[in-house]
Amino acid sequence: MSGFERITFDPKVMGGRACIRGQRITASLILNLVANSMEVAEILRAYPTLEAEDVRQVLKYAAWLADESVLPAEAGSA
Question: Is 78's pLDDT higher than 60?
């Protein structure tokens, strides 16, 4: 998983969930804020230890996780 140096995993921090630079701020929290129309500037004001690049990297990480192949089921296999 290269290219995500701001996304960290530590079993001692938030149970090993994807966090921002070892902080107790999860990637899913930031993604949820963006999905609910919170502007990056608002997020940075609410979480002053974050940087704009942290938010961008969370979005890239979410896109990477969602990049999956879905194969259609064969006819009659349901």
Answer: no
